[in-house]
């Protein structure tokens, strides 16, 4: 058997499973996460947050049903699947890289945020166009004609999912990439001129997006998994997203990301 590869910096779950990379089986935590509607799990960089998020996509994506055995057959969850596997439209949002816009003015930051979200929603519509019963040109028209902010675009997509009686699972990776950078940049700035606080207070575009997520939970969103580094962004939005389930230090989820000594020693068996 060829030597296993180390997936350093590789967040492609499918590639890790199918191309002989080392894989620490964290799939047992999926069932634990399902006990919460909006779990927020925080860890520093290089703890495997992105690959875990990608794993959730393959697990819940309704279009990946025929890949379940191939990808999860040798894992804990493959042998003990939950009833929710491969039953959802899955929207993956990645806010990484948004920190580079922190020094811009609010208008430019919002423009970059709208573009980031819009790109993800466009990809979602392209991927699920058949299941959403969309015309072939609909995703392009959506991208071209819907010039509203990210919150309005999200609400429109939620309506499309609702029309086909679908359910949506959303995962947000690096949710605080932008806001952490803003918090540092404006830490000594008076409140009225503080762009970090401005986008998180009522009427701010960042808070507005999370308010749209919160409203969606009453309709078609079945779960929102959020990962990042710090809790301050959600905490400072106050009622904007007060549905968050803080699970970072839950004993049953403590080792969901990263690698324990026991897990590391287990890898040597397969070296």
Helix/strand layout:
Blueprint: H1 13-18, H2 28-33, E1 39-42, H3 49-60, H4 68-72, H5 76-79, E2 89-94, H6 106-127, H7 138-145, H8 150-163, E3 168-173, H9 177-185, H10 195-200, H11 205-216, E4 221-228, H12 232-236, E5 245-246, H13 261-267
Parallel strand pairs: 1-4, 1-5, 2-3, 3-4
Helix pairs in contact: 6-7, 6-8, 8-11
Describe this entry's structure for a reader.
- This protein has 271 residues and is of the alpha/beta class.
- The protein has 13 helices and five strands.
- It has a five-stranded parallel sheet.
- The radius of gyration is 19 Å and the shape is globular.
- The mean pLDDT is 92.
What is the approximate shape?
A: globular
What gap, in angstroms, lies between the N and C termini? 10 Å
Physical arrangement of strands within the biggest beta sheet: 2-3-4-1-5
Number of strands: 5
Average pLDDT metric: 92
Secondary-structure element pattern, one letter each? HHEHHHEHHHEHHHEHEH
- Alpha-beta content class: alpha/beta
The tally of domains stands at: 1
Task: Show unreliable segments.
Answer: none
Query: How many DSSP H or I helices?
Result: 13
Radius of gyration, Cα only, in angstroms? 19 Å
Described by strand count, sense and barrel closure, the largest sheet is:
5 strands, parallel
Proportion of residues in β-strands: 5-15%
Helical amount among residues, as a percent range? 40-55%
């Amino acid at each position: 058997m060829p030597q296993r590869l180390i997936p350093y910096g590789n967040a492609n779950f499918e590639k890790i499973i199918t191309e002989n990379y080392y894989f620490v089986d964290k799939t047992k935590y999926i069932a634990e996460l399902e006990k919460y509607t909006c779990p927020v799990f925080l860890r520093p960089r290089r703890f495997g947050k992105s690959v875990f998020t990608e794993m959730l996509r393959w697990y819940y994506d309704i279009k990946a049903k025929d890949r379940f055995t191939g990808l999860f057959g040798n894992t804990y969850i493959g042998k003990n699947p939950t009833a929710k596997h491969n039953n959802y439209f899955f929207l993956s949002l990645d806010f990484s890289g948004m920190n580079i816009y922190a020094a811009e003015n609010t208008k430019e930051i919002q423009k970059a945020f709208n573009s980031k979200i819009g790109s993800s929603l466009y990809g979602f519509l392209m991927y699920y166009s058949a299941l959403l019963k969309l015309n072939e040109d609909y995703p392009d028209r959506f991208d071209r004609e819907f010039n509203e902010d990210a919150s309005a675009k999200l609400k429109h997509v939620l309506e499309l999912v609702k029309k086909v009686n679908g359910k949506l699972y959303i995962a947000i990776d690096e949710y605080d990439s932008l806001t952490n950078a803003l918090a540092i940049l404006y830490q000594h700035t008076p409140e009225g001129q503080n762009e970090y606080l401005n986008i998180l207070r009522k009427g701010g575009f960042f808070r507005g997006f999370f308010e749209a997520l919160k409203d969606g939970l009453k309709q078609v969103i079945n779960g929102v998994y959020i990962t990042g580094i710090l809790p301050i962004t959600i905490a400072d939005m106050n009622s904007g997203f007060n549905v968050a389930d803080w699970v970072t230090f839950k004993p049953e989820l403590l080792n969901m990301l990263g690698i324990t000594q026991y897990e590391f020693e287990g890898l040597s068996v397969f070296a």
